[in-house]
Design brief:
The longest helix has 27 residues. It is built from four helices and no strands. It starts with a helix and ends with a helix. By secondary structure, the chain is an all-alpha fold.
Length: 108
């Protein structure tokens, strides 16, 4: 039971380290107490977080789903769940987030 505890502690410490970076960003001159985040910094941090989540999912979860040590119904259920999750993600991204070109050229 030590390994899960150590891994979750490391994950929590990494999250705290990422949150601590915010304290070193320059403060806003116009709004006291607010951090000024440039679009480049925001894009970098969000893309880094997203890529880490996808990498962890692919490296740790996906190989376990394709092991044939269980019955065929469980194997089919795993594959169906992965495909359903990918399809729902694709639909959600298309509906919730517009393309950047649509944002740039839309009349607000």
């Amino acid at each position: 039971w030590y390994l899960p505890l150590i891994l979750s502690t490391m994950a929590g410490m990494s999250t705290c380290l990422g949150a601590a970076i915010v304290f070193f960003l320059p403060r806003s001159k116009h709004r006291k107490g607010f951090v000024e985040v440039s679009p480049v910094t925001m894009c970098f941090s969000l893309s880094l977080a997203g890529s880490v989540m996808i990498t962890i999912s692919l490296i740790s979860l996906l190989p376990q789903c394709f092991t044939r040590d269980t019955t065929s119904i469980q194997y089919i259920t795993r594959i169906t769940s992965i495909l359903l999750g990918c399809a729902l993600y694709k639909i959600f991204v298309r509906c919730a987030f517009p393309e950047p070109e649509e944002l740039l050229f839309s009349k607000v």
